[in-house]
Request: fold
Amino acid sequence: MTATPEDLFAYLDTLGIAHTTHWHEAVFTVDQGKELKAAMPGGHTKNLFLKDKDGAIVLIAAEAHSELKLNKLHRLIGTKRLSFGPPELMEELLGVTPGSVTAFALMNDKAGRVRFLVDAALMAHDPVNFHPLTNTGTTAISREGFEAFVRATGHGFEVIDFTQLLTEAE
Reply:
Protein backbone atom coordinates (compact mmCIF):
# COMPACT_ATOMS: atom_id res chain seq x y z
CA MET A 1 0.00 0.00 0.00
CA THR A 2 1.26 3.48 -0.88
CA ALA A 3 2.36 5.66 2.02
CA THR A 4 0.52 8.89 2.82
CA PRO A 5 2.09 12.08 4.18
CA GLU A 6 0.90 10.97 7.62
CA ASP A 7 2.73 7.64 7.15
CA LEU A 8 5.85 9.56 6.15
CA PHE A 9 5.70 11.76 9.24
CA ALA A 10 5.17 8.73 11.49
CA TYR A 11 8.16 7.00 9.85
CA LEU A 12 10.36 10.08 10.34
CA ASP A 13 9.22 10.19 14.00
CA THR A 14 10.09 6.49 14.41
CA LEU A 15 13.55 7.21 13.01
CA GLY A 16 13.94 10.16 15.40
CA ILE A 17 14.22 12.65 12.53
CA ALA A 18 12.81 16.10 13.25
CA HIS A 19 10.68 17.54 10.47
CA THR A 20 8.58 20.60 9.76
CA THR A 21 5.93 20.81 7.05
CA HIS A 22 4.43 23.89 5.45
CA TRP A 23 1.17 23.25 3.55
CA HIS A 24 0.45 25.33 0.44
CA GLU A 25 -1.23 25.37 -2.95
CA ALA A 26 -0.07 22.67 -5.38
CA VAL A 27 3.35 23.43 -6.88
CA PHE A 28 4.39 21.64 -10.08
CA THR A 29 7.62 23.41 -11.05
CA VAL A 30 10.61 25.11 -9.43
CA ASP A 31 9.42 28.49 -10.78
CA GLN A 32 5.92 28.06 -9.34
CA GLY A 33 7.40 27.57 -5.87
CA LYS A 34 9.79 30.53 -6.03
CA GLU A 35 7.99 32.72 -3.45
CA LEU A 36 7.36 29.78 -1.14
CA LYS A 37 11.01 28.76 -1.26
CA ALA A 38 12.15 32.30 -0.49
CA ALA A 39 10.20 32.10 2.77
CA MET A 40 11.62 28.70 3.80
CA PRO A 41 15.28 28.31 4.75
CA GLY A 42 17.52 25.58 3.36
CA GLY A 43 18.01 23.81 0.07
CA HIS A 44 15.05 23.27 -2.20
CA THR A 45 14.84 20.49 -4.71
CA LYS A 46 13.81 19.35 -8.11
CA ASN A 47 13.39 15.60 -8.36
CA LEU A 48 13.71 13.60 -11.55
CA PHE A 49 12.43 10.08 -12.20
CA LEU A 50 14.48 8.56 -15.02
CA LYS A 51 14.76 5.23 -16.83
CA ASP A 52 17.21 3.80 -19.34
CA LYS A 53 16.58 1.32 -22.19
CA ASP A 54 17.75 -1.63 -20.06
CA GLY A 55 15.18 -0.82 -17.38
CA ALA A 56 17.49 0.86 -14.85
CA ILE A 57 15.45 3.30 -12.78
CA VAL A 58 17.08 6.40 -11.27
CA LEU A 59 15.63 9.01 -8.92
CA ILE A 60 17.61 12.23 -8.62
CA ALA A 61 17.20 14.81 -5.87
CA ALA A 62 18.90 17.93 -7.23
CA GLU A 63 19.25 21.42 -5.83
CA ALA A 64 16.43 23.46 -7.41
CA HIS A 65 18.75 25.60 -9.53
CA SER A 66 21.28 22.97 -10.57
CA GLU A 67 21.70 22.41 -14.28
CA LEU A 68 21.54 18.72 -15.13
CA LYS A 69 22.87 17.55 -18.48
CA LEU A 70 20.78 14.41 -18.87
CA ASN A 71 22.38 13.67 -22.25
CA LYS A 72 25.73 13.21 -20.45
CA LEU A 73 24.61 11.80 -17.11
CA HIS A 74 24.56 8.17 -18.20
CA ARG A 75 28.34 8.19 -18.72
CA LEU A 76 28.94 9.56 -15.24
CA ILE A 77 26.71 7.02 -13.48
CA GLY A 78 27.23 3.98 -15.72
CA THR A 79 23.81 3.53 -17.30
CA LYS A 80 22.47 3.68 -20.83
CA ARG A 81 21.08 7.04 -21.98
CA LEU A 82 18.36 8.21 -19.61
CA SER A 83 14.94 9.62 -20.34
CA PHE A 84 12.03 10.52 -18.11
CA GLY A 85 10.28 7.45 -16.74
CA PRO A 86 6.62 6.93 -17.55
CA PRO A 87 4.11 8.23 -14.97
CA GLU A 88 2.61 4.74 -14.58
CA LEU A 89 6.00 3.31 -13.56
CA MET A 90 6.59 6.22 -11.18
CA GLU A 91 3.26 5.54 -9.52
CA GLU A 92 3.91 1.78 -9.40
CA LEU A 93 7.39 2.06 -7.86
CA LEU A 94 7.24 5.28 -5.86
CA GLY A 95 3.52 5.74 -5.24
CA VAL A 96 3.53 9.35 -6.45
CA THR A 97 2.41 11.17 -9.58
CA PRO A 98 4.31 13.68 -11.75
CA GLY A 99 4.62 16.96 -9.89
CA SER A 100 4.84 15.18 -6.55
CA VAL A 101 7.98 13.10 -7.11
CA THR A 102 10.20 13.33 -4.04
CA ALA A 103 13.04 11.49 -2.32
CA PHE A 104 10.54 10.69 0.45
CA ALA A 105 8.81 8.37 -2.04
CA LEU A 106 11.73 5.95 -1.64
CA MET A 107 9.81 4.57 1.35
CA ASN A 108 7.33 3.12 -1.18
CA ASP A 109 10.05 1.32 -3.18
CA LYS A 110 10.09 -1.78 -0.98
CA ALA A 111 11.68 -3.91 -3.72
CA GLY A 112 14.64 -1.52 -4.02
CA ARG A 113 14.34 -1.12 -7.78
CA VAL A 114 15.15 2.59 -7.74
CA ARG A 115 18.74 3.85 -7.64
CA PHE A 116 18.94 7.12 -5.75
CA LEU A 117 21.32 9.98 -6.58
CA VAL A 118 21.62 13.24 -4.67
CA ASP A 119 23.14 16.45 -5.96
CA ALA A 120 26.31 17.57 -4.15
CA ALA A 121 25.00 21.15 -4.38
CA LEU A 122 21.90 20.15 -2.38
CA MET A 123 24.05 18.64 0.36
CA ALA A 124 25.67 22.05 0.90
CA HIS A 125 22.35 23.15 2.48
CA ASP A 126 20.85 22.43 5.87
CA PRO A 127 17.95 21.86 6.12
CA VAL A 128 16.78 20.28 2.86
CA ASN A 129 13.18 20.55 1.64
CA PHE A 130 11.04 18.02 -0.23
CA HIS A 131 7.38 17.42 -1.02
CA PRO A 132 5.88 15.07 1.59
CA LEU A 133 4.52 12.65 -1.08
CA THR A 134 2.22 15.40 -2.35
CA ASN A 135 2.96 18.72 -4.04
CA THR A 136 0.68 20.60 -1.64
CA GLY A 137 3.31 20.63 1.08
CA THR A 138 7.02 21.13 1.68
CA THR A 139 8.79 19.24 4.45
CA ALA A 140 12.13 20.37 5.88
CA ILE A 141 14.55 17.95 7.53
CA SER A 142 18.21 18.20 8.44
CA ARG A 143 20.83 17.09 5.95
CA GLU A 144 21.85 14.30 8.34
CA GLY A 145 18.21 13.30 8.84
CA PHE A 146 17.74 13.14 5.08
CA GLU A 147 20.63 10.72 4.65
CA ALA A 148 19.42 8.65 7.62
CA PHE A 149 15.94 8.47 6.06
CA VAL A 150 17.23 7.34 2.66
CA ARG A 151 19.47 4.66 4.18
CA ALA A 152 16.61 3.45 6.42
CA THR A 153 14.55 2.77 3.28
CA GLY A 154 17.31 0.40 2.12
CA HIS A 155 18.56 2.67 -0.66
CA GLY A 156 22.08 3.89 -1.32
CA PHE A 157 22.97 7.55 -0.92
CA GLU A 158 25.14 8.42 -3.93
CA VAL A 159 26.23 12.05 -3.91
CA ILE A 160 27.01 13.27 -7.44
CA ASP A 161 28.60 16.55 -8.46
CA PHE A 162 26.46 17.44 -11.47
CA THR A 163 28.70 20.41 -12.32
CA GLN A 164 31.14 17.83 -13.78
CA LEU A 165 28.67 17.39 -16.63
CA LEU A 166 28.81 21.09 -17.51
CA THR A 167 32.52 21.05 -18.28
CA GLU A 168 32.74 17.72 -20.14
CA ALA A 169 33.11 17.87 -23.90
CA GLU A 170 30.10 16.86 -25.93
Remarks:
- The two ends are 43 Å apart (CA to CA).
- The mean pLDDT is 90.
- The first strand starts at residue 19 and ends at 23.
